[in-house]
Design goal:
It catalyses: UDP-alpha-D-glucose + 2 NAD(+) + H2O = UDP-alpha-D-glucuronate + 2 NADH + 3 H(+). The radius of gyration is 24 Å and the shape is globular. The chain is built from 18 helices and 14 strands. It has 2 domains: 200 residues, NAD(P)-binding Rossmann-like Domain (Rossmann fold); 242 residues, Rossmann fold, CATH 3.40.50.720. With 443 residues, it is an alpha/beta fold. The longest helix is centred in the middle third of the chain and has 32 residues. 44% of the residues lie in helices and 14% in strands. The protein has a 6-stranded parallel sheet, sandwiched between helices. A 6-stranded parallel sheet has the order 11-10-9-12-13-14. A two-stranded parallel ribbon has the order 7-8. The structure holds nicotinamide-adenine-dinucleotide. The site of nicotinamide-adenine-dinucleotide has 27 residues, from helix 1 and helix 5.
């Protein structure tokens, strides 16, 4: 099938590449000429495990092309995906500028019937706005073309995006057009062989499903962080509590890890946007508001623990930070808890020696050159003469350090474990003080 994808970010590039891998002829369009140029040269602008090999192979095979030129790309697509960003607007609601710009572009160049599939996370009612925008522009051109607008929200996880795209848990299709559903069933058939993962629904329900999924996941994290804060105060260990509640199949073990707060390009903005969507509908979503509040406070938790340990005296200290990305296996630092921590440490007069396996370049872009930040090439290098180690992202490579060696590198032996990846007793046995999240202990 001939497919066009607008947006070559995490969602667009991965979707386009996986569709090309299944034999479709895919054209990816982006307004960022630099990005398109890099992709054309075989340079992948994001880190996503397994993506580079697939992009290079499909590009070389002629099934995956990159362009800034919308007109030929629109003429190419039997199916046209919209996978552009929907960042938070000033009031927290989703900013649809990019989505509606693509709709206008489609309206300007559409020459024959097509199926427009929205993958961006958008407020309920956006498919109607996209449809109306395209229809308006077509009317301005004095032509009428039959087209469908489908909601097909994306559920891939950064860090495992290729795998999620190749083996989706579910493929939500919101449409009332039998023709569009048939075409999308055909397009997704190679991803849907083992059992039927397609969940058909109306457009508005599909749009809300994406927000509901992210809000539920964010709620689980804030709930566990709330429990961790209680555990800390009553001398209980949240890790034991986590095992205790996860064993109930109604609760389960997935996604109940306490930590330094959720970040990334989706949960913070989607919880906020859903809150605004609810308010616009006349409903005050107090649970969502609490989820956001708990998360905001949690992002400062590591800094509070560090201040407490050093008696609020961080001036001139050097803090080693392991992990800058908002989660492992990505270089994405959007809304990452590390960003809040670094700003707080700098404000308190500390220097930071940071290491992340993939996000070093991203951090350089965000923070620029500054005297109080060293972006290290090795994890061990970050420890040299540091007053403390703070683990912010749970990369696998951080999980089993030799604590005895670590103690010799650090100037003062203390670990702040923002993801509870270490056994406090093992750390303390190496003569290192340990602070975790919600790890109050009575002994
Ligand atoms: P991104 O910021 O990584 O990429 C968006 C891309 O769209 C950029 O390359 C940008 O230049 C391009 N773009 C903007 N306007 C354009 C236009 N008019 N024409 C062509 N390209 C244009 O975004 P992302 O992380 O891929 O997210 C895209 C959407 O998918 C968002 O709505 C997001 O909420 C949703 N989503 C993201 C994830 C994720 O894990 N990142 C998962 C599921 C859903």
């Amino acid at each position: 099938m001939n497919v066009t994808v607008f947006g070559t970010g995490y969602v667009g590039l991965v979707t386009g590449t996986c569709l090309a891998e299944m034999g479709n002829a895919v054209v990816c369009v982006d307004v960022d000429a630099g990005k398109i140029e890099r992709l054309g040269r075989g340079e992948i602008p994001i880190y996503e495990p397994g993506l580079e090999e697939l992009v290079l192979a499909n590009h070389a095979a002629g099934r995956l092309a990159f362009t800034t030129e919308a007109a030929p790309a629109i003429a190419h697509g039997d199916v046209i995906f919209i996978a552009v960003g929907t960042p938070p607007g000033e009031d927290g609601s989703a900013d649809l500028t990019h989505v509606l710009a693509v709709a206008r572009t489609i309206g300007q160049h559409l020459g024959a019937g097509s199926i427009i599939v929205n993958k961006s996370t958008v407020p309920v009612g956006t498919a109607d706005r996209v449809r109306a925008t395209i229809a308006d522009v077509l009317a301005g051109r004095g032509i009428a073309i039959d087209f469908d607008v489908v909601s097909n929200p994306e559920f891939l996880k950064e860090g495992d995006a290729v795998n999620d795209c190749m083996r989706p848990d579910r493929i939500v299709i919101g449409s009332d057009s039998a023709k569009a559903i048939t075409v999308l069933r055909r397009l997704y058939a190679p991803f849907n062989r083992n059992h039927d993962r397609i969940v058909l629904m109306d457009v508005r329900s599909a749009e809300l499903t994406k927000y509901a999924a992210n809000a539920m996941l964010a709620t689980k994290i804030s709930f566990m962080n709330e429990m961790a804060n209680i555990a800390e105060r009553v001398g209980a260990d949240i890790e034991q509590v986590r095992h205790g509640i996860g064993s109930d199949p109604r609760i389960g073990y997935h996604f109940i890890y306490p930590g330094a707060g959720y970040g990334g390009s989706c949960f913070p903005k989607d919880v906020q946007a859903l809150h605004r969507i609810a308010r616009a509908g006349g409903y005050e979503a107090s649970l969502l508001q609490a989820v956001e509040q708990v998360n905001e406070a949690q992002k400062s938790r590591l800094f509070e623990l560090i201040c407490q340990h050093f008696g609020n005296d961080l001036g001139g200290r050097t803090i080693a930070v392991w992990g800058l990305a908002f989660k492992p296996n990505t270089d994405d630092m959007r809304e990452a808890p590390s960003r809040r921590l670094l700003e707080q440490l700098w404000q308190a007069g500390a220097r930071v020696q940071a290491f992340d396996p993939e996000a070093r370049e991203e951090a350089r872009q965000i923070f620029g050159e500054r005297a109080d930040l060293v972006l290290c090439e090795q994890a061990q290098q970050a420890l040299q003469d540091a007053d403390a180690l703070v683990v912010v992202t749970e990369w696998k490579a951080f999980r089993s350090p030799d604590f005895k060696v670590l103690a010799t590198r650090l100037k003062s032996a203390v670990i702040f474990d923002g993801r509870n990846i270490y056994d406090p007793l093992a750390v303390e046995a190496a003569g290192i003080a340990y602070y975790g999240i919600g790890r109050g202990r009575s002994v």
